[in-house]
Design brief:
Largest sheet: 6 strands, mixed
Strand order of the largest sheet: 2-1-6-5-4-3
Number of strands: 6
Distance between the termini: 20 Å
Strand content: 35-45%
């Protein structure tokens, strides 16, 4: 298990309300990415956010190595800009599925949560494939009444991943 994301005792009513709010967050996050609105993606993060996509083997060993690593909203914004304006790759459609949201800890304004994700990809000239499957390990904070990601670790289980991991998970 990813350190710091073991289930702790949290008030049941508080957990239900937070889980619903986090599920709504995931719905909006997935919609922005799946509808190609990459310019909205950075707005789901705090200014000092960390975003990383890494293999389960690395996460299990506590290794910081990742396929994608951004340590600020500015870096996330740069990635979104690069995807939209500078990188060349085949057109595709994405479908994010996020399930089993679990609030594991509430520490003041910080909320630790985990969830499972699947990312399907359909190339315009090919079949739909499972692009990646794994888990989100998230730290949320509330900024101006809105949940934002302070830390998102996307830990994928998929042993063989496509070499065209371009879009955010």
């Amino acid at each position: 298990m990813y350190p710091g994301f073991e289930l702790t005792s949290v008030d049941a009513q508080q957990v239900r309300a937070l889980r619903f709010e986090i599920e709504e967050f995931h719905t909006a996050y997935a919609h922005a990415l799946d509808s190609g609105q990459l310019q909205q993606w950075p707005e789901f993060f705090t200014d000092d956010a960390v975003y990383r996509i890494t293999a389960r083997e690395n996460a299990d060993e506590g290794l910081p190595v990742g396929l994608v690593y951004a340590d600020s909203k500015a870096m996330i914004r740069d990635r979104a800009f690069a995807i939209e304006h500078t990188q060349m790759f085949a057109p595709r459609y994405l479908q994010h599925f996020v399930t089993n949201v679990c609030v594991v800890a509430v520490e003041g304004e910080m909320i630790r949560a985990r969830a499972n994700y699947q990312l399907l990809q359909t190339l315009v000239d090919g079949p739909t494939t499972l692009h990646q499957a794994g888990r989100y390990f998230d730290v949320f904070v509330r900024v101006n009444g809105r949940l934002l990601l302070k830390n998102r670790q996307c830990v994928y289980d998929t042993l063989l991943i496509a070499n065209d991991l371009v879009y955010p998970v």
